[in-house]
Amino acid sequence: MASKTRVFHSLILGLVVLSLIFYSVYNTSEPIQFNSSVYYIKQRDERSNTSSSVFKPISSAIVGPTEKLNNITNNSVSSSSAVDKAAVEPSSADKAVQELVDKAASEPVDKAPPEVVDKVVQELPRPAQVVQVIPPRKANSDGGKNLAKGVLTSRLYDAGHDIPNIELCPDLGASLQFLVLIMSAPTHAEARMAIRQTWGHYAQRKDIGMSFVLGRAKTPELTSSIQSESDLYGDIIGSRFMDSYDNLTLKTTSMMEWVDSYCPKVKFILKTDDDMFINIPKLISFVEARSKFKRTIFGRLAKKWRPIRKVSSKYYVSTQQYAPPVFPDFTTGPAYLLTGDIVHELYVKALNMTYLKLEDVFTTGVVAQAIKVKRVHANEFLNKRIAFSMCNLKKSISIHMVKYHEQFDLWKKLLDGRQKCG
Ligand SMILES: *[C@@H]1O[C@H](CO)[C@@H](O)[C@H](O)[C@H]1NC(C)=O
Ligand SMILES: *[C@@H]1O[C@H](CO)[C@@H](O)[C@H](O)[C@H]1NC(C)=O
Ligand SMILES: *[C@@H]1O[C@H](CO)[C@@H](O)[C@H](O)[C@H]1NC(C)=O
Ligand SMILES: *[C@@H]1O[C@H](CO)[C@@H](O)[C@H](O)[C@H]1NC(C)=O
Ligand SMILES: *[C@@H]1O[C@H](CO)[C@@H](O)[C@H](O)[C@H]1NC(C)=O
Ligand SMILES: *[C@@H]1O[C@H](CO)[C@@H](O)[C@H](O)[C@H]1NC(C)=O
């Protein structure tokens, strides 16, 4: 009797398994996947009310959000942009540079002697070898030499986004405490993955938005892998310029355009990079304490830095690009927080100013000054590499020069809050 029951049970089990297999083979257009990535995207979709359909590129000049939204909704066929142009990706800084940066970033904020500038500016990633043949369409298509003559940013910038992913910002941002926009390069898939698996988890909160901002990739293969990554995670914003060091300022401009178009009601925006560790709980309390602030950029303030006039320098700034001997105070690029109310003006003004590839100087210095935005120093923005101790972590919002495999270590230390700090 018992064995009969067992046989019967096995038969039922077998049938169930068979029908499951049959179902998965014949009834789903997408393969069934049981890995954590898929779990992640499901979580996202549950929190967002919009469908996860792929949004199409829009060919637009500078237009208002509503018009864009209409066109996106109506567009049917995506025309992936030309990718036969090659460009350069920023490479991660080597050890020597890192030491310089550590040293330089620990200089006092209120005065930087001219010789420091050369070192500190190296905090920006260095471009790899240039291997490119680019049609002379844009004013900086010669790799940037032309820029020294002074070119309006609007002449370099193509408005719109190849990958808008507008569902990243529900209700135009009204329900978000803040948006974290992480500047990333197409080749940095590992850095993005490490962030998603560590501090990027806060994207699951309904009141926090997060996304990676990428320029165009230099090969069709990379372009399609970015598209797949976007389809899978829905957290990529694709801009319309070749991703390169000289184009970093275009990336920030594109970020501003995206927020202006799709997230204009967000209260704060953190602009950061994919080699950063961000202490989100600390950022939450930081913005909560500053909810009344208007027209402000918070970060690590760099005061009285001078443009480098040496033509051979990678950081050369001609007088046509910027005439005064000293830059306006600016917040350093690895991480800064802006109030949402200034994004539209920053974007519009940036387009009508002479392009500088030093994105932090340009955006948070020159442009911010022109529209009278306050820049406020906050010690929590370390923007440099520090010893990864839990107490250091707890004090800071942003730590720079974190390799993707180090994100896990930092994340674990932040979560494991047993140790008491003085
Ligand atoms: C999860 O599945 C996707 C799609 O098949 C794949 O690209 C990705 O590498 C997988 N991730 C893991 C962690 O297995
Ligand atoms: C989704 O959107 C519909 C229509 O806009 C709305 O009625 C509904 O309440 C929304 N659901 C959620 C969970 O936000
Ligand atoms: C929207 O689409 C119309 C018709 O296709 C086009 O004329 C217009 O320029 C588009 N506007 C934007 C902002 O893309
Ligand atoms: C898109 O659809 C909306 C609503 O149906 C309509 O008002 C708008 O004119 C359309 N836009 C274009 C470019 O066709
Ligand atoms: C920057 O982007 C523009 C526009 O896509 C492109 O023409 C130019 O070649 C890029 N610059 C570099 C150095 O790749
Ligand atoms: C751009 O700036 C110039 C002055 O620098 C001003 O005359 C012009 O109106 C501005 N254009 C726009 C579109 O804001």
From TrEMBL:
Q: EC annotation?
A: 2.4.1.-
A Pfam family assignment = Galactosyl_T
Asked if the Swiss-Prot or TrEMBL record annotates the protein with the keyword Transferase, the reply is yes
Do you know which InterPro entries this protein is assigned to? Glyco_trans_31 (IPR002659)
What biological-process GO terms show up in the record? Answer: protein O-linked glycosylation
Query: What is its EC class?
Result: transferase
Which keywords does this chain's UniProt record carry? Answer: Glycoprotein, Glycosyltransferase, Golgi apparatus, Membrane, Signal-anchor, Transferase, Transmembrane, Transmembrane helix
Gene Ontology cellular component terms for the protein in this record: Golgi membrane
Membrane-spanning residues where? Answer: 7-26
Q: Where is this chain primarily localised?
A: Golgi
Tell me where on the tree of life, at the top rank, the source sits.
Answer: Eukaryota
Provide any one GO MF term from the record: hexosyltransferase activity
Which locations, inside or outside the cell, does it occupy?
Golgi apparatus membrane
Q: How does it sit in the membrane?
A: Single-pass type II membrane protein
**Transmembrane as UniProt keyword:** yes
The record's family statement is: Belongs to the glycosyltransferase 31 family.
What's the protein here called? Answer: Hexosyltransferase
